[in-house]
Amino acid sequence: MRRTLTIIAVVIVLGGLVVWAYFSFFANQAGITVAPTGTTSLPGAGQATTPTQGETASPATTAVTTAAGARLVKISAGPVVPSPIVYRSTSTTTPGFFVNYIERQSGNVFSYSSVTRSSTRISNKTVPGIQLAVWLPSAQTAFVRYLSGTDSTTINTYALNADGSDGFFLEQNLADIAVSSTSILTLASGVTGSVASTRRTDGTRSVEVFSSPLSSLRVALAGKNRYFAFTNPSSSLGGAVFLVDGAGRLSRIAGPLNGLVALPSPSGATVLVSYVVGGAMQMELVNTATGAVTQLPVATIADKCVWAADNLAVYCGIPMNPPANYTYPDDWYQSAISFSDRIWKINVAGRYAELVLDFSKENDIALDAVALSIDSAGTALSFINKIDGSLWVYSPQISYQEASQTSPAPTIQVPVSQKTPSINQNTPSSTNNSEVNTPPVSTGAQTNNQLTPNPTTSVPSSVSVNIQGFAFNPSTLTIKKDTKVTWTNNDSVIHTVTSDSGNLLNSPTLSPGTSFSFTFANTGSLTYHCAVHPTMKSTIIVEN
Questions:
Q1: Which positions ≥6 away from 134 have C-beta within 8 Å?
Q2: I want to staple 110 with a disulfide (CB 3.0 to 4.6 A). Which of 45, 119, 136, 272 is the partner?
Q3: Three-class SS of residue 194?
Q4: How many helices (H) and strands (E) does the chain have?
Q5: What are the phi and psi torsion angles at 88 (to 5°)?
Q6: Closest by Cα among 178, 287, 175 to 227
Q7: What's the distance, Cα to Cα, between the start and end of the chain in Å?
Q8: What are phi and psi of 104, to 5 degrees?
Q9: Which residues pair with 415 in a beta bridge?
Q10: Which of 22, 23, 44 lies closest to 33, judged by CA?
Q11: Radius of gyration of the chain, Cα coordinates, nearest whole angstrom
Q12: How far apart are CA 382 and CA 363, in angstroms?
C-alpha cells in the first residue's frame, strides 16, 4: 500500500512539473490554429519544430480554374495569401509551369499546373490566418506570417513546407523577411533601432549583418551577399534606399523622396524606385554602381512590380488615370483607393516600356495588381487582384489547346528617357496621322544647342519627314521657326523620334502607318535618333 502511494505521489509531482513547464515557457507563445479538427494546434514559436497534430489524411483535392482567354487564366476566385510563386518544372515528365499559392481561409497549399489547367492541394496542413507568404525560389517552402495573441499584436513566422512535412519557427515579431535560394534575411526592429541577420534556409547559423538606429525599415536580398534596406513608405516623409556593404555600413543610393518604395533587381545592379511629387506617382531606375538615374515614362508603386530573373526587364501593374484627390502610396496600402491597372514590361536594356496585358479588355472587372511573380524563363506571370483577392496567371506561351488558335495581342511601346524630370501618369499612345502632344521639359532660352519650346500663337507651316528603310528622310532638315514637323513611319517595324540630348523630342513608339508632330518655337540645331534603332540619326536646323 505504501509503495502504491509513493508511486502516485511521484506521478503527481511529475505531472505538476509538466504543467509548470508548459505555463512557464509555452502558454504565452503563439500557436497556429488547426481547423477543422478544432482543438489541436501546431506548436508556437520557440517550441518544438515538429508539428504533427492537425494533419488530415484526406487526398489532395482539385479545383477547377476559369480561362478568361487563351493566355489569361483565373486560377482561384480567392482570396489567396500574398505572395504566390510561379516556377517552371525541371522534370521532363511534368512539363509546363506551376503556380504555388496558399488559400487564405484554410492555409492549405495548392499548386496550379499549366498543363492540366487545374489546382491541386499539395499540403493538408490547415493554417488559417496567414497574412503574408515569402517563398523560396524552389517553391518548396513558404515563410508564412500571421498574428496571434489576445490583441493580435504578436507576429509569427513559420516555415511551411509545400509537401506538408515539418517546418520550423523563426523569432517572433520580426519586422521583415527576405529570401534567396541559399539564405534568409530577417529584420528585428524596436525603439532603439533595427538589426538584420542572415541564416541558412533551414533556419540555422544566424549571423548579424548590419544594424541601424532607424526602426522603420524594410529589407531585400539581391545577388551574392548584397543587402538593401529602405524606409517604410509614407507620403509625408522623405524615404531613402541604402546599400549595405560587407562591413555592415549603410550608404544611401536614392532619396530622400516622399512615399519611396524600392525593389532591387535579382543581381542588385539596379533598383526600381517609386515615389511621389506633388501628389503624383513617379518611378525611376537607379544604377547601384554609378548612381545614374533613368526616369520612366510610366509610374506606379514599386510593390506592384516584379523583376525578371535576367535583370533585363521589370513587370508592373500601371494604374490608368489614378484619381488626384488621394494620398499616395498611403491610401492605396490602406485600401482607401483601388486602381485599374494594365500590365507593362519595362525593358531596361532597350530603354522602352511595352504594354503586355490590358486586363479590362479581357474581363468586365478592374485589376489592381499586387504580388506579381514571374518564372525564370520569363514566360508566365502571376498576380493577385487586390480588389477581390483572386489569383491570375498570364502567359503568351501557355500550352493550352486554344492558345494556338489565337494570335498574340498587339503591344504598345513607349521609349524610356534617361533625363525626364517629370512623369505623365496617362500613358501616351500613337495615333494614325495625328499630332501627339509631348510635354515640354523646360522653357526659356536655348542652351548647348538644345531647343526649348516656348508658347506661340502663330500658325505654323508644315514639313514632313518620311521614316522608311530604317532612315529619316531627309537626314538633315532646315526649317523656319514655328514650323510643325510631322514624322510618319512608313516602315514595317516600330520606330521613335528621340532627342540625342534632353527631352524636346520624345515620341511614343510609332507603329507602322502612325505619325508624330512637333512645332519648333526656337532657333538652333537639334540631333535626334530612333530609340529602337540607335543607328538611325538625323538633324534639324531651325532658323529665323
A1: 83, 142, 143, 145, 177, 178, 179
A2: 119
A3: strand
A4: 3, 40
A5: -105, 135
A6: 178
A7: 122
A8: -65, -40
A9: 352
A10: 44
A11: 28
A12: 16
Strand partners, 253: none
Q: Containing H/E element for 18?
A: helix 2-21
What's the grid cell of residue 338?
483601388
Q: How many Å separate Cα 144 from the centre of its chain?
A: 19
Q: How far apart, in whole angstroms, are the C-alpha atoms of residue 532 and residue 529?
A: 9
* Residue type at position 314: V
3-state secondary structure (DSSP) of residue 302: helix
d(CA 193, CA 198): 17
The H or E element that residue 21 is part of is helix 2-21
| φ and ψ at residue 355, rounded to 5 degrees | -70, 125
Q: Tell me the longest C-alpha to C-alpha distance in the chain.
A: 122
**What nine digits make up the cell of 59?**
487526398
> pLDDT per position in the chain (544 positions), as tens?
444 444 444 333 334 433 333 333 223 332 222 222 232 233 333 333 333 333 433 335 555 556 555 588 999 987 999 989 999 877 666 678 999 999 988 888 999 998 888 899 988 777 778 999 999 999 999 999 988 888 888 899 999 988 888 889 999 999 999 999 899 999 998 888 999 999 999 999 999 998 999 888 999 988 777 899 999 999 998 999 999 987 888 899 998 999 999 999 999 999 999 999 988 899 999 999 898 998 888 899 999 999 999 999 999 999 988 888 899 999 999 999 999 999 999 988 777 788 888 888 777 788 999 999 999 888 899 999 999 999 999 987 543 332 222 233 333 344 444 432 222 233 333 333 333 332 222 222 333 322 323 333 334 478 999 998 889 999 889 999 989 999 999 887 788 899 988 778 988 888 888 899 999 888 888 899 988 888 899 999 998 8
Could you tell me where the beta strands, DSSP code E, fall in 226-368?
227-231, 238-244, 250-258, 261-264, 270-277, 280-287, 293-295, 305-307, 313-319, 341-347, 352-357
Contact 100, 111 (CB under 8 A): yes
Please state, in angstroms and rounded to a whole number, the distance separating the CA atoms of residues 233 and 261.
6
The cell numbers describing 283, all together, are 518611378
Could you give the angle at the alpha carbon of 236 between the alpha carbons of 232 and 240, nearest 5°?
Answer: 45
Please answer whether residues 263 and 317 qualify as being in contact, where contact means their C-beta atoms are separated by less than 8 angstroms.
no
Asked whether the beta carbons of 504 and 454 are under 8 A apart, the reply is no
Report the candidate in 412, 510, 411 with the shortest Cα–Cα distance to residue 466.
Answer: 510
- Burial of 312-330, coded b for 16+ CB within 10 Å and e otherwise, reads ebbbbbbbbebeeeebbbb
